[in-house]
Amino acid sequence: MIILPFIILVPLLAKASILTPPVLPLFVRNPYLSTWLGDARDPPWTHWPIFWTGQKLGFSVMVTVPDSSTVYPLLGRPQDYLAFAGSSQVADPVYEGFQYDASCTNFTYKIPSPVDAEGSVKVVLSFMSPITPTSTLRQSLPAAYLAVSVTGSFDINLYVDINGMWASGTGESQITWDLAELVPDVSQGDRSKTKSKAWKLVRQEELLLSEHWERGEWGTLYFAGPVEASHQAGSAQALRRRFAEHGSLSNEVDGRFRRIDDEEPTFAFSKTFRLGDASARMRGPQVDEALFTFALAQNPVVQFASSRGLTMMRPLWSSYYETADDMVRYHYNDFASASALAQNYSDQLAHDAYASGSEYYQDIVALSARQVLGATQFSGTPDDPILFLKEISSNGNFQTVDVIFPAFPFFLYTNPKWLGYLLEPLLEHMLSGQYPNDYSMHDLGAHFPNATGHPDGEDEYMPVEECGNMIIMGLALANAFRYNTQPAFLRSVADAAQLSSLPDHGPKAHAWSLRPDASGIDIDSGTASSGHEHAKSWLSRSHRLWKQWTGYLVRESLIPANQLCTDDFAGWLANQTNLALKGIIGIKAMSEVSNILGEHDDVDKYAEIAEDYVDKWQDFAVSRDGTHAKLAYTWYGSWTTIYNLFADSLLCFRVPGNKSERSEQPASDIWHSGSTVSADKKTEFLPSKIYKMESNWYHAVLQTYGLPLDSRHLYTKSDWEFFAAAVTSKKTRTEILRSIALWVNETTTDRPFTDLYETETGGWPGPHFKARPVVGGHFAFLALGRACGGRAVEHLSFLDEPGAFETVDVAQALEADRMEGEAPEVADARPEVVRMEDL
C-alpha cells in the first residue's frame, strides 16, 4: 500500500458547513477551468458536473468492491452506461453529505461490505482549488486537485474519468490525445520522487484566443493520476463497462482521434485500494489515498493592447517552468504544501468571518472565494505581474472596472497586491494614450480573452461610475501599502515550513515583483515606511490619470447626467443619488492621494470641493423627514441602497489623523470588542446621521431573502448588500446576513452563486447572472476590519450606541416624500432634471 504525504490532510481540508447552496465548486481556477456540481442538494451521482454556463461535462467517479458485482456511482451519472454491463448491478452508496471551505469541497460516502452487514469503507472525494495568498506562484498555476481518501477493512476499486468536452465547447471539435509519464526532475530541486502519468487532450486545430459557448478553444487539458493506476482511453461506454465488470482498466489507448461527439472519447484511471489483508485487519481500519490533477495549460492566455502595442500575453507560470509538463509535474508533487497553505488561508478566513459575522458568514465567504479567482488569469512576468479578469456571464467584457470594484474587498482582504495586478493593465493602457475620453474606460475589451481596447471611445457609458471606482480603489490599495497590510494567513503558522522547493529565480528585484523564495512563498515587501514609499511610487506613476478623472468628477459628479451606473440592468437615470456619492467620495479620495504625493495645493483644493459637494448632496439626496435617501434627487417617494457609503469608512475618512500607525488590536476582533468611539464632527466627511439613517431604513425595508437594491424592484445584488451591511449597526447587519443565508439555503437558482436575485421569491429576476467575480463584495466586512490598520470599524461603533436605532414607518415616509414633491412651491421650482449649471 502506497502512503502519500497527504494522508491526514484529505478529510480535514474542509470544515463543517451549515449552508446548503444549490451549486458547489469542484475545480474553479480560471474562466476556462471552471467545473461545478449543479443541484448539489441532491446526491452527487444524480447529475453530471457542469461548466459555469450549465453545460454538462463528462466527469464521473465510481467504485466497486472486488469479487462483487455491485457498482457504486459517486459523481456524475456513469450508471447510465451500465444498463447491459454483464452481471454488474448498480447500487447507491450511503451519502453522508458535503463540506466546504475557501479552497476545498468534500463529499463523503460509505460503501457497505459485501459480507458484513455492519462493515463499510468510508470514501472522501476532496476537490481542491487551493487559494494561497502567501504564494502567488502557486495561485498562478491553472490546476486543481481531486484527492480520494478511503478508510476501511476491505479492498475497493476506484474509477475516475473525463470525456472530450473538457477540451472544447462543442461536440463537433476534433481532438487528439496522448498519455505522458511525468517524472520529477530531482536536479531542478524537486524533493518529491513521486511519478505520475497524465492524459493530455487538445483540439486538433486550436482556435487561438477564441471561445465557443464561453469555453476556450485552445490549450492542453491535463488529467494526471498515480503512475501505478491502470488507464484506458476509448468510448465512454466501453471504459465504464470494462471497469464495472473487471474492477480495473486495460492500459490501452484508443488511437483513433475523432470528434468529441463520435463515440464520446473518454479518458480514465482506476486504482485498487488494498485495505483488507489479514495483517492489516488486525490493526483496525486502514487508510489509503489517490491523487489526481486537472490542469489547463494555455499559452498565450490573452492578447492585450499594452503600451507597446497588441501583445500576446504569456501565463505567469511560464516564467518559472520551461514547459507545461514541468508545471503539472510540480503541481502534482506539491499537494501537501499547497494543502497546508490553502488550509492556512481557510482557517484564517473562517476565524475572521466568524469574528465579524457568524457561522453563516463563514460559509458565504468560503463559497465566494474560489468564484472570485475563477474569473482571473495570472500573466505578465515576475517583475511585472498582471492579473486579467473576465466579466463572467453578464457580457464577457475584459477587465471591467465596475466588476473589479465590487470584487475588490476580496483582494484587499486576501492579498492587496493582487488588486494592484488587476489595476495595472487598465492604467498602462490608458497612460499609453490608447483611450480617447477624459474619463476612465469601462473595460479593456468587449470580450475576454481579447483586450484590444476601445480606441474609438465607444465603450459602455459609465463615466462617473468608473472614475469614482478607479480613484477609490487606487487610494484603498495605497492605504493597504501604507499600513503594510499583509496577505490573510494565520500568523501562528510558519508558511515556509516543509514546503516543496523551487529552483532559484534570483534576488527579489523590487516590492512589486514576484520572485519567490525557495519554497515558492512571496517575499514580504518590508516595513511600514517602505510601504509608504511603495504607495507613493505606485500612485505617482499614474498621477496624470488620477487628476484627470478627478477633474471629470468635479464637473460631473454632483449632478450626474442621464447615464448608467454599475447596475446597468436597471437602465439609464439622471441625478442618481448613490452614483453622485461615489463621485464625491472619489474627489475626497483625490485629496488623500495628493497628500501622499506631496501635492499640497491639491490636498486643500479637492478637500474643499468634496466638503462643499457633500453638503449639497445631503440637501438633494435625503428626504425632508430625514428617514431615507431618494433613488434620484427629483424622484420623490423613492428610496435606494446607498452602498457607496462603504467607501467613506474603508478609505479612513472617519479615522482621526488618518495615519498609517498599526493598531494593537487584531482587526478581526474589533467587531465584537465592545469598544466605542463617539462620532466626532471634526473628523467626519459624511455625517454620522447618514449612517444611522441608512441603517434604520435597511432594517425597515428588509425582505425575506435580503435587502432590495431600490424602490423600483424587489431584486437585489448580493455584493451591494454586503457593502451596505458593513456600515450598519450590528442589529441591521445581523438581520441582512441571516436573510442572505436563508436565501442560500432555499434559492431555486441552479447556477454558481448568482449575485442578482429576487428578495421575495429567491429566484432569477430576469437576467441570469452566475459565477461572477463580484461576489468578492461579500468580503466587505473583512476588508473593513483590516482597513486603516484595523481602526475603521471602531469608528462605526456609534451605530450601536443607545438611542441610535429608530423604527421607521416606510409607507408613511414615502408618502410624505411624495407629497413634498407634489407641493406647488416644490413642483414649480423644480426642473425636470437638476443640472450643474442650475446651481
UniProtKB/TrEMBL annotation:
InterPro entries xref list: Glutaminase_GtaA, GtaA_central, GtaA_N
Signal peptide positions (record): 1-16
Glutaminase A central domain location: 359-480, 532-653, 682-782
Domain Glutaminase A N-terminal: 116-351
Keywords, in A-Z order: Signal
PANTHER family in alphabetical order: GLUTAMINASE A-RELATED, PUTATIVE (AFU_ORTHOLOGUE AFUA_3G10910)-RELATED
Protein name: Glutaminase
Upper classification of the organism: Eukaryota, Fungi, Dikarya, Ascomycota, Pezizomycotina
